[in-house]
């Protein structure tokens, strides 16, 4: 009954909306809005949350042109579900005989190297795996309550959600080592200084700002957005020469008819030269 009501309200208001227990999914026009929905556990990331998140991200890639990821409740995410890990480490826990698909990497790669750009809207604790999730998004907006940390050292574990690659690329070894070795937390402003976030907004303002950025991003052609999210980061893995070659290949790819139309609009002065159309 609730699902039918939500669908009716969504249809009347012009957006699609559905929710699972652990992750919510809404669509506002061509923007998908995905919410971690385990506020009572500070949005700790269990395998079930990661599975639901991955499903929502795939759906967003099919239905939307840009996405936003945020956390319900008072924090973005407290990272790895420490209770689930503790249970797995009990001496009487079943022995894992066969390696499984590593859900942290597959889920976060769906975000980082999927079909659409994602903006992370952050507030409160953005810790450990929560920070690794935020780092998988392409742009990060933090409100002034956000605190960033990598307390793995204190918990006797190591980063496992792609942070050793993604976070280290963003903030560099020294800052990452400082966070991990000392347990130091960064404020939103400090995070901006180390380029971990691009926008700092007032308390409670991250989601609106992220939605507005996503709307702006969705006005680009899907092809350029895909190149920015999938080609550009891979350039980091290449030599100078191979990078330039890859860039050349990307200038030579067949462009959608929309590109010619956009160029004509600019030349005929139907669009502004920079920023928002
Ligand atoms: C949790 C988790 C969690 C909270 N796993 N259950 N992450 C951490 O080391 C961060 C651990 N959490 C915290 O430091 C604090 O919870 C917060 C600063 C985020 C929030 O504090 P607060 O006072 O608002 O909440 P709380 O009272 O500490 O927690 C509320 C409930 O959430 C409580 O459960 P309850 O059943 O007692 O009500 C907590 O147990 C639960 N909770 N955080 C499980 N993380 C792929 S490798 C990634 C490695 C990492 O992510 S390391 C970082 C782990």
Features:
about 280 residues, 2-enoyl-CoA Hydratase, Chain A, domain 1, Lyase 2-enoyl-coa Hydratase, Chain  A, domain 2, seven-stranded mixed beta sheet, binds 3-methylmercaptopropionate-CoA (MMPA-CoA)
The number of helical elements comes to: 12
Low-confidence stretches: 1-19
Q: In which order are the strands of the major sheet placed? A: 1-2-3-4-5-7-10
Number of domain units: 2
- C-alpha termini separation: 42 Å
Q: What helical percentage do the residues reach?
A: 40-55%
- Rounded radius of gyration (Å): 20 Å
What this model shows, in words?
With 277 residues, the protein is α/β, with parallel strands linked by helices. It has two domains: 2-218, 2-enoyl-CoA Hydratase, Chain A, domain 1, CATH 3.90.226; 222-276, Lyase 2-enoyl-coa Hydratase, Chain  A, domain 2 (Orthogonal Bundle), CATH 1.10.12. It has twelve helices and ten strands. The chain has helices at residues 2-13, 47-63, 82-88, 103-112, 129-136, 152-155, 163-182, 188-193, 206-217, 222-235, 240-251, 257-267; strands spanning 15-19, 23-28, 31-36, 66-71, 118-122, 125-127, 139-143, 147-149, 186-187, 199-201. The strands form two sheets. A seven-stranded mixed sheet has the order 1-2-3-4-5-7-10, with helices on both faces. A three-stranded mixed sheet has the order 6-8-9. A hairpin with a 3-residue loop joins strand 1 (15-19) and strand 2 (23-28). Helix 2 runs parallel beside helix 4 (103-112). It is globular and about 70 Å long. The termini are far apart.
